[in-house]
Amino acid sequence: MPEGPEIRRAADTIEQALKNKTVQDIYFAFPHLKGYEDLLTGAIVSRVDTKGKAMLIRFDNGYTIYSHNQLYGKWYVRKSYNYPKTNRQLRLALHNDRKSAILYSASDIEVLRDEEVPEHPFISKVGPDLLSEKVTADDLIDQMKDKQFRNRKWAILLLDQGFVAGIGNYLRSEIMFTSGIHPSLRPIDCPRDQLEKAAESIIHLMKQSYETGGITNDLELANKLKSQGVERSRYRHWVFNREGASCFICGSEIKKTVAASRRLYFCPVCQKSP
Asked: Is 237 inside a domain boundary?
């Protein structure tokens, strides 16, 4: 599943193709959305927002298309009506005189009035989005100390979109590693300085992943390894997907476990058990 940084990058590309341009044609695959095709044809795209893993395409006539890629959704931006060759199922297409934004395989698509967006079941419950909102380390520490979150294990909490929007599986492992957090710990178990470190890691890694297309490792180290011919999958992350490899910090063997039914990677030395 694409995480927040990937959705924000996709939104940037879509916004560049559609913003301030008139929609000349629109296609919805789902019958219950067909009635919106005439309503949105001729409207102008005003901007493209994100809220975690959800995308919001805003129009000047007061409507918004909400979409969530879930596991299999994928956006393409192409020259107008130049559809890609794919076995995926077409779900949504927006065309102007130069570009088309095309969504395949996603099933979670809705059209909402702008005033309905904040009340949407996903939007109303999702936490702060670091890539589209101003969020400080203190804001995140307040989240960590909230009674709704403080007693939950980090390995579960970081995947909860109500805690922080857009964190997925690779970011979870990377945030815990760079914060020195063992998989068994909860926010309530951590001293203030470790909460500060976790907040800073969340902000830093979300933004770095967005800016670099998914690299969460130290950039100087990643560039050095890349220049040595190391495969991207081996230098992209600190620990994620590196089971059995040596920790870049201490040299210990990276371990893999399962939390919330999803794989989690950690260094047993840098993330010491309490």
From this structure: yes
